[in-house]
Amino acid sequence: MRFTPRVPDVTLTPLDEESLVRLLVAAVADADPLEVMPPVDGPDGWTDRRRDAFLAFHRHRTLDPATAVERTWVIDVDGAAAGAARLERHGDDVEAGIWLGRTRRGQGVGKRVMQLLLDAAKQGGAARFVASTTADNHSARSLLDGLGAAMTVNQDEVFAALPLSG
Ligand SMILES: CC(C)(COP(=O)(O)OP(=O)(O)OC[C@H]1O[C@@H](n2cnc3c(N)ncnc32)[C@H](O)[C@@H]1OP(=O)(O)O)[C@@H](O)C(=O)NCCC(=O)NCCS
């Protein structure tokens, strides 16, 4: 008998106060703080200070109209928060970013999310879809390479760019 892996149901939910709380719960359960937010001083792990900083980070960058610089979505996999996706405009470029909880990686979710981000970027009218990662991040590199993006490696940094126009 052949076993066909089930493709999980992947949707993007625009970030708001309700989904931000779900996102924090997912991050605490399934990710290291350094994978999902800028460094915060103090002992390792999800301290109260880091949880507050995580909420403040997303409020500042996405939810507060006075300071927002990007659009963020909660990645829902089979109805439960599993990570976040973002698009940030820089002139004609739109920069994409994704993180998934550890237990959700390697199941095709990132690939599906990248396609959804690409669709959103096209609708936003940017000329180029860009993303960067580190040289040792093989899954992120495969993901970006799979989109047909041109990849530029500069020491530890990898920059991916895909024209959207035409
Ligand atoms: C990078 C990330 C978003 C990829 O999402 P994912 O759901 O794990 O990736 P997918 O399962 O969709 O696989 C995407 C590609 O990477 C490959 N891949 C997946 N895991 C891999 C691994 N551990 N090593 C090498 N390649 C891997 C897959 O085979 C696939 O390539 P293919 O289309 O050529 O078969 C996810 O691993 C993650 O959240 N990592 C931590 C945060 C991060 O590094 N973000 C990157 C910012 S751009």
TrEMBL record:
Keywords: Acyltransferase, Transferase. PROSITE patterns: GNAT (PS51186). InterPro entries: Acyl_CoA_acyltransferase (IPR016181), Bact_Acetyltransf (IPR050832), GNAT_dom (IPR000182). Residues 21-165 form the N-acetyltransferase domain. It comes from the Bacteria. GO terms for molecular function: acyltransferase activity, transferring groups other than amino-acyl groups. The keyword Signal does not apply. The keyword Transferase applies. PANTHER family: AMINOALKYLPHOSPHONATE N-ACETYLTRANSFERASE-RELATED-RELATED (PTHR43877). This is GCN5 family acetyltransferase.
